[in-house]
Write a structure and sequence with these properties.
With 87 residues, this protein is mainly beta. It contains two helices and seven strands; from the N terminus they run E-E-E-H-E-E-E-H-E. A hairpin with a 6-residue loop joins strand 4 and strand 5. The termini are far apart.
């Protein structure tokens, strides 16, 4: 399943590329339908803002703030979620 938002701005980058404290707008979820649906239920909806938080030792998993919640995601999952970084 690929859910997408076609907004203006910079080229999309993987959610995993955000550093702690950086923000972006979700662009697309290029994940199997079951994973994409679950993430969308948790607030990962294209067009919504997301912010990178702290990570576990070694960098995986990582906390992301979206829709008022903090959610931990593995780097592999984040590499399939595209965002447009805020300037």
């Amino acid at each position: 399943m690929q859910a997408a938002f076609n907004g203006n701005g910079a080229l999309p980058l993987a959610l995993s590329e955000l550093r702690e404290g950086e923000k972006g707008v979700l662009e697309s979820l290029d994940l199997p339908e079951e994973f994409a649906s679950r993430l969308m239920e948790l607030g990962f909806i294209p067009g919504h803002p997301v912010a990178a938080g702290k990570s576990a030792p070694g960098g995986d998993p990582r906390i992301f703030r979206v829709d008022g919640s903090e959610i931990a995601l593995r780097r592999e999952t984040c590499s399939h979620i595209l965002i447009r970084a805020h300037a």
